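Reopening this ticket.

The earlier resolution said the output was attached, but the attachment link was broken on my side. Pasting everything inline this time so it's all in one place.
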Amino acid sequence: MKVCRKCGSTEFYASGICKPCKNAGAAKRYAENPDKDKARANAYYANNTEKVKAEHKKRYASDPKKVMASQAKWVAANKDRIKTNKARWLSENKELGRIYSHNKRARKRANGGTLSKGLAEKLYKLQRGKCACCCKPLGDDYHMDHRMPIVLGGANEDWNMQLLTQRCNNQKYTKHPIDFMQSRGFLL
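Inline output:
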């Protein structure tokens, strides 16, 4: 009978070390030099992306409840980390954050459709940097607006989007576009 060469356990890997001893050694190496360990893991993932993805799918397929419980446990233990990473990502990717929030809201309302990346830049050029409602310069704090609001059945598609200043978008809110422009005196 084979035994672990470190602790004497009978459950061991091919290297002759049991799982608890192997995990303890890995934790010690990580504590001593976390950057080196992260770099090693990233290099392995880069070289074996398909293999890692297949392993993840296989593990999820074998016991999805266990995987989801593990993910929920990790999320509960790392809420601050998730919050700071999300805030950093949103500050670095304002346009993608806007598109993400619009797509999420449309999914909740089951309106369908998704906005494409680069839409805000495209609309900014088409509108020549001016608000579609008041024709004032948009600046950096512009809002992406659905011409026909999602609440009124508008689609979450690129053709239904426009850029408005914060003031115009807040005033328009969920009003029908014709009613809103009539209240502004543009349409009779």
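Reporter confirms the inline version is readable. The domain at 89-183 is CATH 3.40.1800 (His-Me finger endonuclease fold). DSSP finds nine helices and two strands in the chain.
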